[in-house]
């Protein structure tokens, strides 16, 4: 074998590949740079539009625009007896106090409506307080997982309150995205979990997935809404994330729609992630 000839051929092939690939790489880098510049320009423009309404943007603007599905759901109709066994234990002494109210060792279960119930701990469940809110949330979640019903797919949404009392809000997750409409609310007083309120739904149907609008597009929809409503109020956007919400609920079923939840200091804007329609709610 003529190794010199082979080496020469390989050198030529290498040079040809470089001649082909380097321009491609440079083109891709230029494309990325143009996109980054376009994004920066769009974001700066949106900041200016928001500022005209006295609104400042302090939240991180996500770059993701995944595919999500609308979900047809109904309230969870699990019976109170099944809930009581899950919360207090199968072999625990469970006593019905009145319709929808059950007492067990360690607390009381009260059905509020279909899929909505409250658990009150007596005595309250002690918590070793930490300095970090994340530590507090983990400890509260471990208690709820032990004395709860189907709480494995709940994740912490946020912590509210001061030094003495805290409200921890957990959201049920669907496909990795939180349901903002049906939250689990846990109340901590000093160093003890006193009670929690849980709202649950069952998914009956999942519609074909579609690509959601970008976060920038959602902010543009919000600006258009403010233009239309002549909104001028000193405010700041502090959080922006994808999830699900429904403003209309029914025992017969309703739709959870993908939304961009844009939280401000004074209210929450929900932007439909397919249509761009905007709704406004209280901070919850």
From TrEMBL:
Q: Which InterPro entries does the UniProt record give?
A: YycI-like (IPR018604)
Q: Which residues form the Regulatory protein YycH-like domain?
A: 43-274
Q: Cellular component terms, GO, for this chain's entry?
A: membrane
Tell me what this protein is called: Regulatory protein YycH-like domain-containing protein
Q: Which organism is it from?
A: Ferroacidibacillus organovorans
């Amino acid at each position: 074998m003529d190794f010199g000839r082979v080496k020469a051929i390989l050198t030529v092939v290498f040079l040809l590949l470089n001649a082909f690939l380097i321009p491609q790489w440079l083109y891709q880098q230029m494309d990325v740079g143009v996109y980054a510049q376009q994004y920066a320009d769009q974001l700066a423009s949106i900041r200016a539009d928001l500022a005209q309404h006295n609104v400042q943007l302090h939240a991180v603007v996500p770059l993701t625009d995944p595919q999500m599905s609308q979900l047809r759901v109904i309230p969870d109709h699990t019976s109170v007896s099944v809930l009581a066994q899950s919360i207090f234990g199968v072999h625990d002494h469970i006593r019905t106090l009145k319709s929808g109210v059950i007492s067990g060792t360690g607390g009381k279960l009260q059905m509020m409506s279909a899929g909505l119930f409250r658990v009150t701990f007596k005595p309250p469940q002690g918590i070793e307080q930490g300095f970090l809110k994340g530590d507090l949330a983990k400890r509260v979640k471990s208690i709820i997982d032990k004395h709860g019903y189907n709480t494995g797919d709940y994740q912490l949404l946020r912590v509210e309150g001061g030094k003495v009392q805290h409200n921890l809000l957990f959201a049920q997750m669907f496909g990795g995205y939180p349901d903002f409409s049906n939250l689990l609310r846990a109340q901590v007083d000093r160093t003890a979990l006193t009670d929690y309120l849980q709202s649950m739904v069952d998914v009956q149907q999942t519609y074909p997935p579609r690509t959601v609008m970008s976060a920038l597009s959602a902010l543009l929809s919000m600006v258009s809404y403010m233009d239309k409503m002549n909104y001028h109020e000193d405010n700041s956007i502090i959080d922006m994330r994808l999830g699900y919400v429904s403003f209309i609920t029914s025992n017969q079923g309703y739709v959870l729609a993908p939304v961009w939840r844009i939280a401000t200091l004074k209210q929450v804007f929900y932007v439909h992630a397919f249509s761009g329609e905007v709704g406004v709610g209280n901070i919850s």
